[in-house]
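User: For my dataset I need records formatted as: sequence, then structure tokens, nothing else. Please produce one.
Assistant:
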Amino acid sequence: METVLAPGCRSAAKLLGRRVEIDPLSHGGHRDRLDRHPVPMKTGAAPTDRTGTVVGVTVDPRWPEVQEIEPAVLGRGGVHRVRLVDGAEAYLRPDDGTAALLPRLAARGLPVPTVIAARGDRLLLSALPGVPATDPAWRTQPERLVEVLGAAWSTLQDADVFHGDLTLPNILGIPSTGELTGVVDWGDGVMAARPELDLACLVWSLRYNRFEDHTGRLLLSLVGWPHPTDPELIRLSDLY
């Protein structure tokens, strides 16, 4: 087994004998929260102060690709949603050590952000389509949500990788079709599957985000997990 970075699940951290703080950043780092809302991208020039400095980041000639910039999450620093000079949306975030990992994951067929550039202690990552599994649109379509979560978990197992923080905000999809479009926040990734721990993250996250246990049982049944029952949901949730 080749370890890239320590897993983020609490149980995995215990197995590795170290404390791991789960990365709280968005789209390339999400914390599991009910009240997450992206800040709308402003049009025109990036916001500046009286000196002409872009608010939130220091103007840096290392990022000539960036034309506009906004914080990605209300009340959080570090991750910025940006508009590139070609009009594409992307994310500028602190380097969490995944610059080399993400291309390897993509080579295994995983829907992950593309590393546009890695300079100094920052990464410029492509934006992915879809919305996080915490988006309100999924509330009225729990069956499609389960399809997306099941597809994310199965894709990881097929690729023989462990995510480490496979919670709802780190899974992107399209509610109208139930299509999985992305898995983000790989700072705790390990290049060897740990199916039970990744599933435990999903089950815990469903309960944390106040989905009914019926949704969790549907997920266990979909992925072929033994004993898709309430006691098993509790056991898995306790692993996280």
